[in-house]
Amino acid sequence: MTTTKPPVWFWIVSVLALIWNGLGVMAYLGRAFATDEMIAALPPEQQAEFLVEYPTWYTAAFATAVFAGVLGALCLLIRKKWAHILFVLSAIGAIVQHFYLFKNVEMTGAQMVMPVLVIVVCVFLIYFARNSAAKGWLK
Prior knowledge:
The protein is mainly α. It is 76% helix and 0% strand. It has one domain (8-134). It is built from six helices and no strands. The longest helix has 25 residues, at 8-32.
Protein backbone atom coordinates (compact mmCIF):
# COMPACT_ATOMS: atom_id res chain seq x y z
CA MET A 1 0.00 0.00 0.00
CA THR A 2 1.49 3.30 -1.04
CA THR A 3 0.55 6.75 0.11
CA THR A 4 1.12 9.99 -1.66
CA LYS A 5 2.41 13.14 -0.07
CA PRO A 6 -0.41 15.54 0.81
CA PRO A 7 -0.32 19.12 -0.46
CA VAL A 8 0.41 22.09 1.79
CA TRP A 9 -3.28 22.98 2.08
CA PHE A 10 -3.92 19.56 3.66
CA TRP A 11 -1.61 20.55 6.52
CA ILE A 12 -3.22 23.98 6.81
CA VAL A 13 -6.71 22.47 7.07
CA SER A 14 -5.44 19.86 9.55
CA VAL A 15 -3.86 22.49 11.81
CA LEU A 16 -7.00 24.64 11.61
CA ALA A 17 -9.07 21.56 12.53
CA LEU A 18 -6.86 21.02 15.57
CA ILE A 19 -7.19 24.67 16.63
CA TRP A 20 -10.98 24.64 16.10
CA ASN A 21 -11.45 21.46 18.11
CA GLY A 22 -8.94 22.62 20.72
CA LEU A 23 -11.10 25.70 21.28
CA GLY A 24 -14.03 23.33 21.75
CA VAL A 25 -12.11 21.41 24.40
CA MET A 26 -11.29 24.69 26.14
CA ALA A 27 -14.99 25.65 26.10
CA TYR A 28 -15.94 22.26 27.53
CA LEU A 29 -13.31 22.39 30.27
CA GLY A 30 -14.19 25.99 31.08
CA ARG A 31 -17.81 24.99 31.56
CA ALA A 32 -17.07 21.74 33.40
CA PHE A 33 -14.58 23.20 35.87
CA ALA A 34 -15.88 26.74 36.39
CA THR A 35 -15.79 27.70 40.05
CA ASP A 36 -18.35 29.92 41.78
CA GLU A 37 -15.76 32.72 41.87
CA MET A 38 -15.13 32.42 38.13
CA ILE A 39 -18.87 32.52 37.40
CA ALA A 40 -19.36 35.54 39.69
CA ALA A 41 -16.71 37.45 37.72
CA LEU A 42 -18.69 37.05 34.47
CA PRO A 43 -21.24 39.58 33.16
CA PRO A 44 -24.79 38.82 34.41
CA GLU A 45 -26.04 37.47 31.05
CA GLN A 46 -23.17 34.94 30.94
CA GLN A 47 -23.73 34.00 34.58
CA ALA A 48 -27.30 32.97 33.73
CA GLU A 49 -26.01 30.39 31.24
CA PHE A 50 -23.97 28.70 33.97
CA LEU A 51 -27.10 28.37 36.12
CA VAL A 52 -28.84 26.23 33.48
CA GLU A 53 -28.88 22.56 34.44
CA TYR A 54 -28.11 20.47 31.38
CA PRO A 55 -28.84 16.73 31.36
CA THR A 56 -25.90 14.38 31.83
CA TRP A 57 -26.27 13.01 28.30
CA TYR A 58 -25.94 16.58 26.94
CA THR A 59 -22.63 17.00 28.77
CA ALA A 60 -21.47 13.58 27.53
CA ALA A 61 -22.38 14.53 23.95
CA PHE A 62 -20.45 17.81 24.32
CA ALA A 63 -17.39 15.97 25.66
CA THR A 64 -17.60 13.33 22.91
CA ALA A 65 -17.86 16.00 20.22
CA VAL A 66 -14.85 18.02 21.31
CA PHE A 67 -12.49 15.25 22.41
CA ALA A 68 -13.20 13.04 19.37
CA GLY A 69 -12.69 16.14 17.21
CA VAL A 70 -9.26 16.83 18.72
CA LEU A 71 -8.26 13.18 18.31
CA GLY A 72 -9.51 13.26 14.71
CA ALA A 73 -7.44 16.36 13.97
CA LEU A 74 -4.38 14.76 15.55
CA CYS A 75 -4.97 11.69 13.36
CA LEU A 76 -5.00 13.96 10.31
CA LEU A 77 -1.67 15.43 11.39
CA ILE A 78 -0.11 11.98 11.80
CA ARG A 79 -1.88 10.85 8.61
CA LYS A 80 -4.04 8.07 10.06
CA LYS A 81 -7.36 6.88 8.62
CA TRP A 82 -8.82 6.87 12.13
CA ALA A 83 -9.48 10.58 11.55
CA HIS A 84 -12.61 9.77 9.56
CA ILE A 85 -14.30 7.64 12.23
CA LEU A 86 -13.31 10.10 14.97
CA PHE A 87 -14.84 12.99 13.02
CA VAL A 88 -18.02 10.93 12.55
CA LEU A 89 -18.13 10.34 16.30
CA SER A 90 -17.50 14.04 16.91
CA ALA A 91 -20.32 15.00 14.54
CA ILE A 92 -22.75 12.63 16.25
CA GLY A 93 -21.89 14.21 19.61
CA ALA A 94 -22.28 17.72 18.22
CA ILE A 95 -25.59 16.94 16.53
CA VAL A 96 -27.02 15.37 19.71
CA GLN A 97 -25.79 18.31 21.77
CA HIS A 98 -27.18 20.94 19.41
CA PHE A 99 -30.46 19.11 18.86
CA TYR A 100 -31.07 19.58 22.59
CA LEU A 101 -30.24 23.28 22.33
CA PHE A 102 -32.46 23.83 19.28
CA LYS A 103 -35.34 22.01 20.97
CA ASN A 104 -35.10 23.38 24.52
CA VAL A 105 -33.37 26.77 24.46
CA GLU A 106 -34.84 29.88 22.93
CA MET A 107 -32.24 31.39 20.62
CA THR A 108 -32.24 34.39 18.34
CA GLY A 109 -30.94 34.13 14.80
CA ALA A 110 -27.54 35.46 15.86
CA GLN A 111 -27.31 32.91 18.68
CA MET A 112 -27.97 30.07 16.24
CA VAL A 113 -24.96 30.93 14.07
CA MET A 114 -22.37 29.14 16.22
CA PRO A 115 -24.31 25.87 16.72
CA VAL A 116 -25.01 25.67 13.00
CA LEU A 117 -21.39 26.51 12.19
CA VAL A 118 -20.20 23.73 14.52
CA ILE A 119 -22.32 21.16 12.67
CA VAL A 120 -21.19 22.46 9.26
CA VAL A 121 -17.53 22.20 10.30
CA CYS A 122 -18.12 18.65 11.61
CA VAL A 123 -19.63 17.60 8.28
CA PHE A 124 -16.77 19.25 6.38
CA LEU A 125 -14.15 17.46 8.48
CA ILE A 126 -15.83 14.09 7.83
CA TYR A 127 -15.75 14.84 4.10
CA PHE A 128 -12.16 16.09 4.27
CA ALA A 129 -10.89 13.02 6.15
CA ARG A 130 -12.74 10.60 3.85
CA ASN A 131 -11.38 12.29 0.73
CA SER A 132 -7.87 12.49 2.20
CA ALA A 133 -7.96 8.75 2.84
CA ALA A 134 -9.26 8.10 -0.68
CA LYS A 135 -6.40 10.12 -2.15
CA GLY A 136 -3.89 8.07 -0.18
CA TRP A 137 -2.85 10.88 2.13
CA LEU A 138 -3.87 8.88 5.20
CA LYS A 139 -2.64 5.38 6.03
